[in-house]
Design goal:
There is one protein chain. The chain is 40% helix and 16% strand. Strands 1-11-8-7-5-6 form a 6-stranded parallel β-sheet. The chain contains 10 helices and 11 strands. The protein folds into 2 domains: 25-122, Rossmann fold (3-Layer(aba) Sandwich), CATH 3.40.50.10860; 136-257, NAD(P)-binding Rossmann-like Domain (Rossmann fold), CATH 3.40.50. The radius of gyration is 19 Å and the shape is globular. The protein is of the alpha/beta class. Bound molecules: NADP nicotinamide-adenine-dinucleotide phosphate (NAP). Residues 137, 160-163, 165-167, 184-188, 191, 204-207, 225-227, 257-258, 261 line the site of NADP nicotinamide-adenine-dinucleotide phosphate.
């Protein structure tokens, strides 16, 4: 029987743990999201983050700026947040307007408040296998596998995609966890030959339902990171349902990786709060 990796259930369990841990604290973690401009998708993501914070009892604030803000002004605003003792986690919602260098902005967030795990220091710590913030989607995927007791040690994990926010960090995280990892991308020759070897297949290519049954072996565990909106308004992922039938377990879209990303962000914010002033 195929197991469905239910991200809603797993994220709920994490939220309950966080509520429990928070009940032992006198102060509350405070996450600040910086939003520049009025991209509708970004506004939805930001609302979801706020909602999740409130659900577990964290404080959350959204600091909004007009899309005409300059990079220099944004640096100054980040300086204020970096030095504010009452702010524990900072996220700059991407994408930023074209006249702002996103990397320069990310580099300006204090690493100990960088709960998205995008700052080079946190990226470096991940690659050295040291403590730091791991970006939310990869951390959420690891927690989802853990929740369903799916071990990764000595497993062959194939990752489709090498973005800085999903593919590369999930590969590093799983390598640190003693999996054998293959990373593939758009220039990979004969992708299918690689994906068919996977004990665990993580797909973050951003191409609607590209992984069909012939890409996978029987018994594979599939983690689908992709999110796409169908014409009828429903959502689907990078994996075609035909591949689910050959799998021993798969994460659905929606209610798979998405809720785990938010839960992992809460975990990172709690970590930033606990490590404040350390
Ligand atoms: P991205 O930055 O566009 O990266 C896509 C990666 O896939 C690239 O490395 C690209 O290779 C590779 N790729 C593209 N076509 C390919 C192909 N035919 N074969 C093999 N590899 C291919 O995307 P992303 O930010 O990582 O996101 C990926 C998907 O996950 C998107 O659908 C996004 O919406 C979704 N997502 C979901 C969550 C969540 O919380 N559930 C979070 C983040 C992202 P190259 O490097 O060679 O171009």
């Amino acid at each position: 029987m195929t197991l469905i990796l239910n991200g809603t259930a797993a994220s709920q369990a994490i939220k309950e743990q966080l509520k429990q841990a928070l009940s032992q604290e006198r102060e509350k973690p405070h996450l600040v999201v910086v939003l520049v401009g009025s991209d509708p998708a970004s506004e939805v993501y930001v609302r979801n983050k706020e909602k999740a914070c409130h659900e577990v009892g964290f404080m959350s604030s959204v600091v909004k700026f007009d899309s005409t803000i300059t990079q220099k002004q944004l640096f100054k605003e980040l300086d204020k947040l970096n030095h504010d003792q009452d702010v524990h986690g900072i996220i700059v919602q991407l994408p930023l307007p074209k006249h702002i260098d996103s990397n320069a902005i990310i580099d300006h967030i204090a690493p100990h408040k960088d709960v998205d795990g995008f700052h080079p220091l946190n990226v470096g710590n991940l690659h050295r296998g040291q403590n730091g913030f791991v970006s939310a989607t990869p951390l959420g995927i690891l927690r989802l596998l853990e929740f369903y007791s799916i071990g990764v040690v000595s497993k062959h994990v194939v990752v489709v995609g090498r973005s800085n926010i999903v593919g590369k960090p999930i590969a590093a995280l799983l390598l640190n966890a003693n999996a054998t990892v293959t990373i593939t991308h758009s220039k990979t020759k004969d992708l299918m030959q690689h994906t068919q070897q996977a004990d665990i297949l993580i797909v973050a290519a951003g191409i609607k339902q590209m992984i069909t049954a012939d890409y996978v072996k029987e018994g594979v565990v599939i983690v689908d990171v992709g999110i796409h909106r169908n014409d009828d308004g429903t959502l689907c992922g990078d994996v075609h349902p035909s591949a689910y039938e050959k799998s021993s377990a798969y994460s659905p879209v929606p209610k798979g990786v998405g809720p785990m990303t938010i839960a992992a962000l809460l975990l990172n914010t709690f970590q930033a709060f606990k490590e404040r002033g350390v």
